[in-house]
């Protein structure tokens, strides 16, 4: 056979193989989030007939975890999965069941299908990231918020998740609307920690002309996966705090009322105390009554 003919045949085989590979559909169906101690069914969907099938393999982070090879005895091989167990009684050439999963099983999974001779070719599915999570036990903690604000006053607050793994995503809501990312700084503690946090810094919007005051609901949401709206989440906790936005005079009057109440309490406490303390209290009272 001439060299040219040999090269032609090789090229033809390569083109046919590439065409056949493109004709195969391979897709991995798997949950993206699995609770600690839970299970995941990795179902490999492919369009190859069993008569043409040679091998199906499942991978985690590019390492084989389970294979099926037609005609081999035994046909199934468990290559083990870090952080999980393969249930051999519920695994076959179409699906693999992982059980007792812990955080070490988190990774990118995919499956790969190979066909028999003479048309030998292999095709892999897209990767699916599976995250094993530990649910949060309580709402996040919010600190730094006051109860009353004036329009245009800066609001600064911190939100910290209590537990959960991986560290939950933190999202701030103002009256149930996500706060712009430019007004938020998010952080995660060192590797191995289950705590995440976020700092909020924004300016309160002005009141409408006819408004004397209004209430604003400030919410911190800690969730797996990150919050994107009122959808279903595998793990979500929230802390809501309502603050008041008032015109400056009303805010000032509330402050005076608070000082006056404190002065009254101090007056009661100072009865029977030295004359100097009573004189000081009287001076404070005069300042509060000044028009």
UniProtKB/TrEMBL annotation:
Membrane topology: Single-pass membrane protein
Keywords for the protein's UniProt record, in alphabetical order: Disulfide bond, Membrane, Signal
Source species, domain of life: Eukaryota
Annotated Ig-like domain residues: 3-131, 140-237
Keyword hit for Ribosomal protein: no
Signal peptide: 1-23
InterPro entries linked: CD80_C2-set (IPR013162), Ig-like_dom (IPR007110), Ig-like_dom_sf (IPR036179), Ig-like_fold (IPR013783), Ig_sub (IPR003599)
Record carries keyword Transmembrane helix: no
Chief location category: membrane
Cellular component, GO annotation: membrane
Annotated localization: Membrane
Protein name as annotated: Hemicentin-2-like isoform X1
Gene coding for it: LOC113208343
